[in-house]
Amino acid sequence: MKHGEFECDWIARFDNYKAIVRVNDTCVQLCLWDTAGQEDYDRLRPLSYPQTDVFLVCFSLESQASFQNAEHKWFPEIKHHCADVPTILVGTKLDIRENTTRSNAEGKQEDKRTSAVLYNQGLAMANKMECVKYVECSAKTQKGVKYVFDQAIKAVLNSRRAGRAKRATILDIFLICFSLDDSYSFQNVEDKWIPEVRHYCPFVPFILIGTKLDLRYENKDAENEASSKGNSFVSYKDGRSLSNKVNAAGYIECSALTQKGVKSAFDEAVRTVLTTTKTKKGKTTFLCTL
């Protein structure tokens, strides 16, 4: 299926498609990479795997051989190259299985045995391979196709949330930075970044850092330009006031250009970790997130 049209004479190839879809009021750009499964492409195919957010492992519901191939070839290959990426098992050609089942029920076929893969078989395989979901669809009738991609998007969003929660257990301190020449950046600290940090890591200390200190004192032209646009430089008093308001462990101003205050920022981060957490004996490394 391409551009919503079913291709009767489909040829296996490498191709990619993009689409804007909405799931639970979230607008997502979906980029689909369609890879060729022939052995001739075994070395080329993994080149498309980096930065993949979710895999759709597809097999034909009318073929037990295709079904077994998912377990013996595709899952091992994916786990080898992208062990931590979520996978969804997808049974395709649902219309053929449904037509076969209907014909058997009406007695139109003498041999009522069929090689079609049943739903319970697919579900068992998905559980065995630790897939996040098992779905079935038909590109010809469009039945289940939208559901497949909705589940793929949800798998990615859930995986990212889980990743954030996992990182929260190993972080020692946050450095929440804003630009001293941008009052909107300063406001974003209170409106966005601090609520996010508190949501995922409520017990991890953070330091508030004002960057681009050189611009506030040395570039009057930049200050005048910012003022003309309704923006303004953030004063030390304002930065310190916000730091106290949000219970930050400290407030530092620095300039990456002149290096002024940079060492102080990291020294303060280390001191904060040492004084607010009980570290294990011999521990000398800390994880700091900017």
Explain the overall architecture.
- The protein contains nine helices and nine strands.
- By secondary structure, it is an alpha/beta fold.
- The chain folds into two domains: 152 residues, Rossmann fold (3-Layer(aba) Sandwich), CATH 3.40.50; 120 residues, Rossmann fold.
- Strand 3, helix 1 and strand 4 form a beta-alpha-beta unit.
- About 3% of the residues have low confidence.
Short account of what is shown:
The chain has 9 helices and 9 strands.
> What are the secondary-structure elements, in order, as H or E?
EEEHEHHEHEHEHHHEHE
Mean pLDDT: 82
Question: What is the CATH topology descriptor of the largest domain?
Answer: Rossmann fold
- Outline the low-pLDDT stretches: 278-285
Query: What is the strand tally?
Result: 9
Biggest beta sheet attributes:
4 strands, parallel
Helical segment count: 9
User: What strand line-up does the widest sheet have?
Assistant: 8-7-6-9
Share of helix, binned: 40-55%
Distance N to C terminus? 44 Å
- Radius of gyration, CA atoms, in whole angstroms: 27 Å
Please tell me the CATH architecture of the largest domain by its name: 3-Layer(aba) Sandwich
Number of domains: 2
The CATH homologous superfamily of the largest domain corresponds to P-loop containing nucleotide triphosphate hydrolases
Q: What share of residues are in beta strands?
A: 15-25%
Q: Structural class of the helices, strands and pairings?
A: alpha/beta
Tell me, briefly, the overall form: elongated
User: In terms of quaternary structure, what is this?
Assistant: single chain
Name of the top-level CATH class of the largest domain: Alpha Beta
